[in-house]
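Worked problem 6 (solution included).
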Amino acid sequence: MSQHHPQEEQALKTARFLLDVGHSKADVLSNALIPPHLRQWVEDRLEEESNRTFERARVISMAEESTDWLAGIDRSEWHYWPKLRSYLLGIKGWPKDTVTSLDDASDRILRELRPPSTSEFDVRGLVLGYVQSGKTANFTALIAKAADAGYRLVVVFSGIDNGLRRQTQIRLNRELTGNPANPPDAVRMPPVGKQWHQFTTDDLQGDFHAGRANHAALQGSQPVLLVVKKNGPVLRRLQSWFQSAPEDVRSTLPALFIDDEADQASVDSRGSYQTQEEFNTDDPDYEQPAVINGLIRVLIGMFARRAYVAYTATPFSNILIPHDTYDGTAGADLYPKDFFIDLPKPRGYFGTDEFFGRFDPIDETTIDGLDVLRIVSPEEVASFVQDNELAPSVDQALHAFILGGAARALRGKPDAPCTMLVHTSQRIADQRPTKLLMEERFRELRDEWRYSRKSGIRTRLAGLWTNDFVPTTSGIPGRSQHTFEELEPFIGPFLEAVVVREINSDMGEVLDYEREPSLKAIAVGGNRLSRGLTLEGLLVSYFARRSPQYDTLLQMARWYGYRGGYEDLTRIYTTGLLADWFSHLALVEHRLRQDMQVYEQSPGLTPRDVGMRILQHPTMQVTSALKRRNTTSSVITQSYSEHLEQTVKFPLQVEDRLAVLCERNRQATREFLAGLGSAQRSTGFGPMWIEVSAAAVVNFLRSFAVDFELSSLSPELIAAWIERQNTEGDLVNWTIAVRGRDKANDKLGAATWLPDGTAPVWNIGRTRLKGTNSLGVITSSGDEALGLTADEVASMEKKLSDGDEKDRNRAARLSRSSKCGLLLLYPISKYSGRDDTPLGKAREPIYDNPDSPTARDLIGLALSFPRTTKAGPSEAYLEGTSRWRPVL
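Solution. The predicted structure is:
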């Protein structure tokens, strides 16, 4: 997370640690351990940290405030959490506000568990984090506090392969249990009587085996920690071992089960949906639960005092677990019946919003992503994946990795790990030739730098640095800029350090940052690189694997996490379609957390009462069909009332498909306008028709084509919503306006889809956001005032002058009668960006070659909706058996 020079980092870590153990600020700043030339800098950083606040975790819980059992605990006797806290401050160098946030969030989770002395309890909850955001740190803190509070058995279900299980074991050993050798980068080994019993190790094959376990440990006062993978044979061995323990141990031992990546393998994808009251194995349709799900449920059910806490960043399948399903052998399913907890986004974290941006059509808020996306054409992906040819974008990605790694060294991090991810296929057969191709090309680049630097590689690297990296860095406040000449001395050493590795189940190669903390690697792989495994120092991702499932796609995105100090060096090479899908997922995550915030503010609700809803996409799937087999798809209480809907996304990167769409819309629009007869007015921008029937507008919308893989606008949903409003007497009359330019522009041309006899309408220019399929916005200020009556114009002007509204379009929308809607048609020239209008830094022309046979003018569509009498549904959501409901 740090952005500082190593000497500054060490001084700041030392100061935080000294403050935490009780030294005064004055004594700390005069301490010999703080170099004199850094004391003012350290004082300034400490002052900044002391002024920071933190966001609290959101909680939906059935526990009442009066049952806060933690309030009565004397924490002065605690051992594990204080040691972990000191480690985070003094060794890892976390800012105090970050540690305070972790302290608060883990307290809120622990509070949802039951006092370990309670005679019998069964708690099940879900903790929602962000991909690669510190969920492990949170459950490590929870385990430490639970052990301090009296929980004596902790089982962590971690991943489905040895690598992920080992990664978690190493982390817990370093931060929680300690090591007999007391290495400087780990917590100190606890004193006798406080040491952990462990029957799993940090070896690759160190999973649970009964031969190295002892039941006596379950009967002592020291806590027991097991880190096991979600694997049938392993879980059966653990079940047998627990089963052979004395009965009184299982009935009295307080047990905490942590399920890491809880949406993977843990969710039942097979069992019958039956409640406890109606359970019947004689039912001909009865199916046992899926293996891993059933084994986890049995393991939990073996203990009378049990708490199960699921952790995930992609909770879609967990939310959709039936809330009351039951099996006679496995018991209740893993639905988080007791609590949902949403962890706050950590400071310095880069997630979907930060990389891909987000647009919310409901409140029209826009968040711009970092300028690190580099869009790859489908043709280049096909040549790379299918033909194993070195596409130009792959070569550029390799050059970007070289520059990024050298820049990290220039910024004082020569020993930091640096990784490039190449993920284009889940098929192992595809990964081997890809690895060999990358290895061969990287060897060529290294030799070219060694022996013939002036033959082209220096020019290419200098050009990419100057034209790509320097502008990106300049857009991030506070980031230092460097010339290529300053960077050049660091390129050679980085090239010499890089290795290429193939990471899959067939190969023995691994990314072991514990044993190779300075590893510089190009990692080629698929599923092994797509969940849980942290790629340290990930700089460049070449990602083209297409998955239409929300959870799978998010988990494959290994670029999420903390990029402090090098976020401007990050590059993501992917297709326009995948970039648009990720942007939609940013909205999905945002809406989910919005709902949790609303529920948290409504006391008395439990997770059984208020299931979460998940925003659906026209072509993507929330999760696998088997995991959503008991769900309900519904269109619920969001409304187009007071909103503007517009077409801003087109398949600009697939011209053949775009040409077909444009031709269809040209014909549909021409027929629609011809059917309206002569225009009643001219606005100066084009013709306008008034008092058009809703039926005509609805029929036109249903004939208007959008690309459902890209567009969040659904003409069919809008048409159905208008029809429902008509039953209330709203939106029965429509104004239709063609909104072209107010004067001719020979370069942009004129619309070709107006009815015969209509005066020419000049095309407008709308450029696209660089590297995307989006125009961003097509409307201009004041467009929504077209067709207002004199009284409505007066109302609009009053709203603006009174300050009730600052946006002219929104003021117009709110001034229009509920009986009248506005449909705007925009003729958008294929030569947009080629006229005399200057392009913004983040903009580019619509077409690379507007004179190509497939290039077409676009037709943009915008619908301005007034405030209607009653809101009606407009968005599709997926819900589980515990249904979402609005809170008043």
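Discussion: Residues 350-583 form one domain.
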